[in-house]
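Budget justification note: compute hours in this period were largely spent on complex prediction jobs such as the one shown. Inputs:
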Amino acid sequence: MRSRAALISAAVLGVLAAGFVFVLSTAEPATTRKADSPLLGKLAPPLVGADYDILDSAGQWVLVNFFATWCTPCIAEHDDLVAFSNAHALAGDAQVVSVVFSDDPDNVLAFFAENGGDWPIVLDGDGRIATDWGVARVPESYLVAPNGEVRAKIIGGIEVGKLEQLLAEAKATS
Amino acid sequence: MRRWAPWLALTVVVAVALVIGTTDRDEPTEAERVQAIARTVACPACDGQSVASSDAPAAANLRADIERRVAAGQGAEEIRAAYAARFGDHILLNPPRTGAAGLVWVIPVAAVVAAGAALAVAFRRWRREW
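Corresponding output:
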């Protein structure tokens, strides 16, 4: 009787452990996680800064990246954004645009001077742009198609390989 | 007549309370309207907090946006609909009254009506037994 109870306990534990491994192995990756948004499939909300308007980028894919220098995942993803931007600079088919989320512009300028990144930076002092785009927390990014349609929302940090894959999939379905 | 007197008195009290509660109010100020709307909008970066009670940057952005929209003359439902269109319905702490979410409003009312009907049947049965 006692050995049967032990056997059943071992079996239950084994099933739980297998389930745990399965959940971990099939979970969404920690970076470049696609998320749902009411904006998907719709025209991108306005994105206008002192020297930039998203309408200027018509004909290009645009990765709109909301970030802050106080946000650790934003710092971690920056090299990947630089790699993505550099990879598409020559072809001119895609570009990055950063929107500053609740941060001091001086901190942002110092951060870009130190870490690189040659793309438009839009200040959002009153948070209106973040609210228009439905941004909850940073980093959060949106992939906008050349026709101005929002095609993907990405929460958490960006990983360049997965971003390239996402862009390729979006291009394939355009 | 004596049998119905308590019910009549209760009906009069409830009716007077409802009339006073719904009509004898000062027009809310703009700040009060902003606060009332902020209490019905969820902080998108928090769990279970409204933008009225959260210090998260996204909540601060939304509070400022509500102020701008109220100052521009937008109504509460218009503002809430605008946020649902940007963030999704989960941004609304008061669920919409249509679609599947509308069941949240219908079920409690149906439960109260059903409970009242069950009580009425039970009282009638007990009275017969006595």
